[in-house]
Amino acid sequence: MATGGAWGGTYIDRKFLQMFESIIGKEAFNAYKTNYPSDYFNICKSLELGKRNFSSLSTRFVIDIPLSLDNECKLVRNSGLNDLLKMSEFQKFVKYDDYKLYLSLPLVEDLFRHVCSHIVKHIKNIFNTNEKYETKMETIIMVGGFSESPYLQETIMSAFPDYEIMIPHDAWLSVLKGAVLYGHYPKAISSRIAKCSYGVDALVSFDPNVHSPERCKNVNGAKYCNGFFSKHVTIHDELKADAKLDQKTYRPVNLSDKTTQFDIYTSTKEDPKYIDEADCKRLASITVKCPTNTDRIKLCFTSVETELKVDIFDEETGNNIDGNLDYFTTITGNKHPITLYKNV
Q1: Residues 10-36 pLDDT 10s
Q2: What are 298's strand-pairing partners?
Q3: Last residue of some domain: 81, 108, 135?
Q4: 326 pLDDT higher than 70
């Protein structure tokens, strides 16, 4: 399961570039990137080299600065880079000398510590979640460009002393190599972990002991709970390749309807109750024609390679029902509602 946040090497890149914008001015720095793309690329390359060499034992962090940046500052801001630096909030932490930018170690370490602490916290959360599975995690494999950072490696090894830490050669290429290998042999990955819960917006019989009073909706003389999250997939479930997941049978509330609509929702909760909870989000809507021989329509999620496939079919004949998929249209009160008929 791919999870996480903006805690990689690009976060550090962004913070360093924001520092340049603060010192030089955002418009001036954007103009420099446009006018001198090659020199800007060299700054980024020097920054990348610094990231990959920085560790807790480092005595300095240096970025090479092309002469063109100082000239651009004089042209656009009427002051050289050194003068602009002395007027900025970074004057105590950054020094410019001989076309090099020297950053204070506390400034750099604070950036790295912020990113690495989030990574450690997230890994611990994953391990806590993993307790529900039979397989115990014993190894951490570090891949991607930021995995080559000695500072991150030291942090991970210190935080997880009981785990084997594996860092492949050319870790920055591992993701690309994995994608190519997967393209040639998709069955190399036998299962995945659901990143969220998936379900359908449905009506269920209203139970005053279970459902909130404001959820009660009267349709054709019957009381229903409105906006019920009919769950098919639970977050953190292991999804094995080509496995059919939870199947449920639905029926149109109005039996005269010729079409009906399945609104697919996701949630970051294990057991969402209603589709309008804070953690729920509409993913898509599928409109299908109602079968003529039965009022029962079965919906099934299937794990297929990197995707979840939704199959809708006539429960009586088993024939698939074609539908129109819509990601964009806003839900209105005019849709044809469905009710949960039974679990299969």
Answers
A1: 888 888 889 999 999 988 899 899 999
A2: 249, 313
A3: 108
A4: yes
Q: Within a domain: residue 312? A: yes
pTM: 0.66
How many structural domains compose the chain? Answer: 3
Residue at a domain's end among 65, 89, 108:
108
Q: For residues 63 and 128, is the Cβ–Cβ distance under 8 A?
A: no
Give the pLDDT band (50/70/90) at residue 183. Answer: confident
2 in any annotated domain:
no
Is the same domain home to 183 and 198?
no
In the block, which residue shows the tokens 């299937």?
302
> For the purposes of burial, counting CB atoms within 10 Å of the CB of 38, is it exposed (0-12), middle (13-18) or buried (19 or more)?
exposed
Q: Indicate the pLDDT class of residue 260, thresholds 50, 70 and 90.
A: confident
CA–CA distances in Å: residue 79 to residues 41, 85, 103, 174, 311: 23, 10, 21, 44, 65
SS (H, E, C) the chain: CCCCCCCCHHHHHHHHHHHHHHHHCHHHHHHHHHHCHHHHHHHHHHHHHHHHHCCCCCCCEEEECCHHHHHHHHHHHCCCHHHHHHCCCCCCCEEEECCEEEECHHHHHHHHHHHHHHHHHHHHHHHHHHHHCCCCCCEEECCCHHHHCHHHHHHHHHHCCCCEEECCCCHHHHHHHHHHHHHHCHHHCCEEECCCEEEEEEEEECCCCCCCHHHEEEECCEEEEEEEEEEEECCCCEEECCCEEEEEEEEECCCCCCEEEEEEEEECCCCCCECCCCCEEEEEEEEEECCCCCCCEEEEEEEECCEEEEEEEECCCCCECCEEEECCCCCCCCCCCEEEEEEC
Backbone angles phi, psi at 307, to 5 degrees: -125, 165
Number of C-beta neighbours around residue 270 at 10 A: 11
- Phi (first) and psi of residue 130, to 5 degrees: -65, -15
Q: Is residue 95 part of a domain?
A: yes
